[in-house]
Amino acid sequence: MILDQLQNWERYVAVHPGFKKAFQFLNQHDLDDLAAGRHPIDSEKLYALVMQENGKGRDIAKLESHRQFIDVQFTVTGTDNIGWKPTVECSGEADGYNSEKDIAFFTDRPDTWLIVPQGIFAIFYPEDAHAPLGGTGPIHKVVVKVPVDMT
């Protein structure tokens, strides 16, 4: 898991071959004007999800993890609270892994909560179970889905 300001994005392009395109998308678009929904970046394998939702609160936000994608979650406006727990320490998948949606939900509670205000991004790898939208109030965010395997 990584938490940082978007202005420091260049530090992370060497970590994964898809991060450069992900961060270029976040920096080159007027994110306030992007419609909610899916936006392709590099065909279907690298894409962004634009969301404008109300936070669910920490008691309702569920831990989830992905096997095929890394999440780069960037808060455009508002403040997200994202729970975190190592995936290997999660004891119970709620409904099993859904390979079509690349998601598994867990019944566990997060060990840690990250405050992710406007201008901050968090990167979650498959080993990072995370519970997004744990804050309250309106949150406008962009989640860039970066394939674990870019080949």
Walkthrough of the structure:
The chain is mainly beta. It has a single domain (2-147), classed as YhcH/YjgK/YiaL (Jelly Rolls, Sandwich). The chain is built from 1 helix and 11 strands. The strands form 3 sheets. The chain has a 6-stranded antiparallel sheet with strand order 1-9-5-11-3-2, covered by helices on one side. Strands 8-6-10 form a 3-stranded antiparallel sheet, with no helix packed on it. A two-stranded antiparallel sheet has the order 4-7.
List the helices and strands and how they pair.
Layout: E1 2-5, H1 19-28, E2 37-42, E3 46-54, E4 63-65, E5 69-77, E6 79-86, E7 104-106, E8 112-117, E9 120-124, E10 128-131, E11 138-147
Antiparallel strand pairs: 1-9, 2-3, 3-11, 4-7, 5-9, 5-11, 6-8, 6-10
Find the count of extended strands (DSSP E, 2+ residues): 11
Helix content: under 10%
Task: Estimate the global geometry from the Cα principal axes.
Answer: globular
Largest sheet: 6 strands, antiparallel
Query: Which strand order do you get reading across the main beta sheet?
Result: 1-9-5-11-3-2
Oligomer: single chain
Which CATH-level-2 architecture? Sandwich
- Main structural class: mainly beta
List unreliable stretches of 5+ residues. none
| Span of the ends, CA to CA | 23 Å
> What is the CATH superfamily label?
YhcH/YjgK/YiaL
Average of the residue pLDDT scores = 95
